[in-house]
Amino acid sequence: MRRRVILHKYDQSKYIIVLVFCLISMSFYVGYSILTQNITATGTSIVDAGSWDIRFIEASVDSSTSSSISSISPVIDTTNGNMSISVNGLLLDVGDVYKYNATIKNNGTVNARIVGINLPSIPDYVEYTITYGNSSVTNTGTSAAFISSINSNSQQFLNINDTISFSIKLKYKDNATTATYPTDDILNNVVVVLNYEQA
Q1: In whole angstroms, what is the distance from residue 116 CA to residue 83 CA?
Q2: Which one, of 142, 137, 148, lies nearest residue 114 by Cα?
Q3: Phi/psi of residue 159, each to 5°?
């Protein structure tokens, strides 16, 4: 005669609990094995090295606005990551003017942005005007205001192969007092340093 096994309610709940526990354990095992697999990806990526090359491509005395006395051509220096231009003008009489025009070009392979300018220190009887694109600064201006003006004119960026005009104008002040006049002829050397960083 066959015996029939009857599961009581209590035994059925134990059976379900054991079954659920086994399923949870298996899902942890499968989940752990999925999460701990090592994936190795290999490949090659080539990054071209950028070249930094911001330079004055031309600089000269503007003979149309300069006094008749000849001045020395501008000297350009690109050491220490900055770019400077040095100009000399012999201002002999009230009203004498020298203007130097230059073009700045980004010959490199990375975009640049002007972030600062070191304004020159000059004698009281001389005034200067420095122009970068459409922005200008004079003796009474500050470097921060000049950079702010350049930014507001949207000319702070010098992208690859872009150029921008630059000029320095020196003038013997019309209203200079006799106390500030030099006793001897002085060759005024003015150095302006432009600071750029990668854009």
Answers
A1: 11
A2: 148
A3: -75, 170
Is the model's pTM score more than 0.85?
A: no
DSSP-derived secondary structure for 155-179: --EE-TT-EEEEEEEEEE-TT--GG
The b/e string for 100-135 (b: 16+ C-beta within 10 A; e otherwise) is bbbebbbebeeebebeebebbeeeebbbbbbbbbeb
Which amino acid is residue 179, in one-letter code? A
Largest CA distance in the chain: 138
d(CA 86, CA 74): 6
Residue 167 phi, psi dihedral angles, 5° rounding:
-150, 155
119 and 192 in contact (C-beta within 8 Å)? Answer: yes
Q: What is the pLDDT along the chain (199 residues), one digit of tens a residue?
A: 555 555 555 566 666 777 777 677 666 665 555 555 555 555 665 656 678 888 888 878 787 777 655 556 677 776 655 677 777 767 777 778 888 888 889 988 999 998 888 887 777 778 888 899 999 888 877 888 888 888 888 888 999 999 999 888 888 877 766 656 666 655 567 788 888 888 8
Domains delineated in the chain: 54-198 (2.60.40)
